[in-house]
Amino acid sequence: MLQKKTVEDLQVKGKKVLVRCDFNVPLQNGMITDDNRITAALPTIQKLVSDGARVILCSHMGKPKGEAKPELSLAPVAKRLSELLEKEVIFAKDDTVVGENAKKAVAAMQDGDVILLENTRYRKEETKNEENFSKELASLADIYVNDAFGTSHRAHCSTVGVTEFVKESAVGYLMEKEIAFLGNAVNNPERPFVAILGGSKVSDKINVIKNLLEKVDTLIIGGGMAYTFAAAQGGKVGDSLLEEDKIPYAKEMMEEAKAKGVQLLLPIDTVITKEFKNDTEFKTVPTREIPEGWMGLDIGEETRKRFADAIKGAKTVVWNGPMGVFEFENFAAGTKAVAEAMASISGMTIIGGGDSAAAVNQLGYGDKMTHISTGGGASLEFLEGKDLPGVMAVDDK
Ligand code: AMP
Hints:
Blueprint: E1 16-20, E2 27-28, E3 31-32, H1 36-50, E4 54-58, H2 75-85, E5 89-92, H3 100-107, E6 114-117, H4 131-139, E7 143-146, E8 168-171, H5 173-187, E9 193-197, H6 206-213, E10 218-221, H7 226-232, E11 236-237, H8 247-260, E12 263-265, E13 269-273, E14 282-286, E15 289-290, E16 295-299, H9 301-312, E17 316-320, H10 333-344, E18 348-351, H11 354-362, E19 371-372, H12 376-383, H13 389-392
Parallel strand pairs: 1-4, 1-7, 4-6, 5-6, 7-8, 9-10, 9-17, 10-12, 11-15, 17-18, 18-19
Antiparallel strand pairs: 2-3, 13-14, 13-16
Helix pairs in contact: 1-2, 6-8, 7-8, 9-10
The structure holds adenosine monophosphate.
């Protein structure tokens, strides 16, 4: 399906291979609090090491905005990687990323060695995809492999520009897997195909809704987004999240769903509160009858049942975005109900990264899902039907 070269197509023995990973992991006081993105990158690294490549890893971390910010150094990642690979990973500590340390370390490499470069976003050129930094990165290697699905929707030096200046390029196993799962689910789903969208804003998901209406049998909308739809149905949403300028769009989408025979499921009841916090008075009311001074922070029990029933009848489910303010325990039941329903089915279940991935992992359903994407933004753009620049830039087979 993927017409791009993969690591399987490469002859890497004795060659220097620059691998773009997504090591943008959460840190607290210099400690990695979730290493899923690091473990997800291991298969590609291990394959290259065992084939005798000289592996040079790179990644961004956070948003240092072109400055060397010590708190966003990749040094803790090098340490964690060494532990996971059970082999030394040399950290090339250069504020300029491709500096003296990196060059010296690369020159001294033996087959099977692994080096990690410093945070690519220490360089201001990175996010502007400027040629000079792309050339510097490429100068270290013969071959480039992109395995950073989570950053593949960005055209940066380390994801796109570098491909122009290396002899050969390919995608890694993680990238291949992400594209295979998301691509199959969206373009060749076993039906019924149900998509669930949540999160705060309609405006972030306009193109996703439009594209998914072309593909799904049922579209479920929850979270803060749902109130714009409730308002479009003439409902009163009180002080809930509302994007008034998107009401016409919501109306259009409801009509489009009807015209296409797509079942559009919206919340019918909602858990409301007066204050945006966990420990406060709350109650459940019909979604279109939220009084002034109250806001909806979660889907109600009836809605949870309806959504769960739709999920249980599905053969393919794709989910992006929480059903409520799941960070507050009192308003997490809707998000939990969706995760639970997905975990209980035998069909294909895909979590589109970001908050829903965090919620599923937190709830302990991680291993019950077919695939949890490592990229929130990238999987959303994928669901919009867009080509990902980081994938397009790689050599065709
Ligand atoms: P997004 O980044 O668009 O996926 O949105 C995720 C955020 O949406 C989470 O932090 C949730 O707390 C928030 N969210 C979900 N439902 C609601 C709601 N009903 N009201 C306010 N925020 C919400």
